[in-house]
Amino acid sequence: MSGLYVRSASLVCCYPEPLRAFKSLKGKSNASARWVRRQWNDPVVKQAKREGLRSRAAFKLRELNDRFQLLRRGDVVLDLGAAPGGWTQVAVEATAPKKKPKNGQEPPPRVVALDLKHFDAVEGAAIVVGDFRQDKVRAQLDELLGGRKANVVLSDMAPSFSGNFLTDSQHQLRLCHNALKMAELYLRPGGNFATKILRCDGSEEFRADLKVAFDVVKAMKPQSSRPESTEMFLVAKGFKGVQPLAEADSDSAEDGDKQ
């Protein structure tokens, strides 16, 4: 575990709340104040607030889905690094069946979101808080999935950025490998996978791993990503159900920059 602090796993059972407005810059550090000002002036963040979305990252998944048709109605989705819930909201919206069951009973959740960090519940999704490398956390996932395999595994995981690109990009790459490991465990044959990655040494090798495990692999930087960001997203479709390639590393579902 490399000394990583891991919050205890627990299910979140509360109701969703709208994106909170910023209150004041008083008492904030210079870096925090710059971040808040950037948020205030960001048109994508403003649009997210208008639509009741929790982060600008929601638009990134919408763009990926519009281009690659990742999500379909009725799909089962595993959303890794889900806090604060922007991707989860989009996944629920895209996969919700048009009609409710005739028997009136609530079906099991189709979207299961996981993060180390507690965040407000998303209607239509189940949320697990914990480190997915732990057996007890995967046991909770198994219980929520009820024997089902996921049609889609998503990862918007990101490390707590240090400002050192070499360090940050390698931490991000380890999270990508961890996400792929989860896809190999939980994704059904023919399923889809998408993960955030930073261009760095090792990113092409990871992409090569995806090409072994999936029929098609594409890369995209959404327009809703910040222009200065080095992030891009790898989208892999048609999981072959091959022997696992990835090994879970010392980072997992860490808190990321989802704004």
Automatic annotation (TrEMBL):
- List, alphabetically, the Gene3D superfamilies matched: Vaccinia Virus protein VP39
Q: Which InterPro entries match?
A: RNA_methyltr_RlmE (IPR050082), RNA_MeTrfase_FtsJ_dom (IPR002877), rRNA-MeTfrase_E (IPR015507), SAM-dependent_MTases_sf (IPR029063)
Ribosomal RNA methyltransferase FtsJ domain segment(s): 54-239
Q: Which UniProt keywords apply?
A: Methyltransferase, rRNA processing, S-adenosyl-L-methionine, Transferase
Active site annotation, chain numbering: 196
Q: Which HAMAP family match?
A: RNA_methyltr_E (MF_01547)
- Entry's family note: Belongs to the class I-like SAM-binding methyltransferase superfamily. RNA methyltransferase RlmE family.
Protein name, per record: rRNA methyltransferase 2, mitochondrial
Q: What is the lineage of its organism?
A: Eukaryota, Sar, Stramenopiles, Oomycota, Peronosporomycetes
